[in-house]
Amino acid sequence: MKPLGKLLLVSALLFSPVLWAESPKPSEAAKPNDSDALQGVEKGKVIFDINMNSAEKLPLYLMVIQETVEDLKRQGVEPDVVLAFRGLSVKLISKDRENMELTDYEHLDKIATQIADLQKQKGVRMEACSVATRLFEVDNAKLLDGIKPVGNTFVSLTGYQAQGYANIPIY
Predict the structure, then answer these.
(1) Closest by CA position to 34, among listed 67, 81, 8
(2) If we measure between CA atoms, which residue out of 154, 147, 145 comes closest to residue 87?
(3) C-alpha dist (Å) from residue 153 to 4, 76, 108, 121, 167
(4) What CA–CA distance (Å, rounded) separates 169 from 52?
(5) Where is the signal peptide (predicted)?
(6) Torsion sign, CA atoms 129, 132, 138, 139
(7) Is 56 helix (H, G, I), strand (E, B) or coil?
(8) CA angle 159, 119, 138 (to 5 degrees)
(9) Which end of the chain is more exposed for a tag (fewer CB within 10 A), N or C?
(10) Gap between the Cα atoms of 26 and 163, Å rounded
């Protein structure tokens, strides 16, 4: 290629708006949608059956639940979401840390923050199983703010499923 041709090519590339246009970051790129699954759905009725005893792992699942609520809204579906804590998970949603490992405190702080953030979302509520709190000696009065003690989450799961809620287990 002749020098003049090279100069024209380089100039054209340098001043090309395509090269300098900002491309979307991967997180900002169009997110795939769930239009097939949500066809005709106006309200996203789901109960998350949380029976997990790992303070280290629960924050990941709470993050995904938060994203699920946001994804429902983004796709024009009103969230109607219940987080039902049962089993040893009730220890992870208590303000009382007396019997918890010191190494779990950082994770418990994150869980408390995520729970508070989720509760700010319209259409999200939380409950804890009183059978589990009794068996694992967790005082219902010391549950994180906004978590309602219920008689038995097996009954809750039965009732919510009879009302058409999707049951998503988190174990």
Answers:
(1) 67
(2) 154
(3) 78, 29, 22, 22, 12
(4) 10
(5) 1-21
(6) positive
(7) coil
(8) 70
(9) N
(10) 38
Nearest Cα to Cα of residue 149 among 70, 94, 106, 96: 94
Report the distance separating Cα 162 and Cα 168, nearest Å: 14
How many of the other CB atoms lie within 10 Å of CB of 23? 8
Alpha helices by DSSP H, the chain: 3-14, 17-20, 35-38, 58-74, 89-92, 105-119, 130-135, 153-162
User: How does pLDDT run across 63-98, given as a tens digit for each residue?
Assistant: 999 999 999 999 999 999 999 999 999 999 999 988
Q: Which CB contacts under 8 angstroms, 24+ apart, belong to 65-69?
A: 65/118, 65/170, 66/114, 66/117, 66/118, 66/121, 69/118, 69/121, 69/123, 69/124
- The pTM of the full predicted model, rounded to 2 decimals, is 0.82
Select from 85, 54, 55, 79 the least CA-distant residue to 67: 79
Number of continuous H segments (helices) and E segments (strands) in the chain = 8, 5
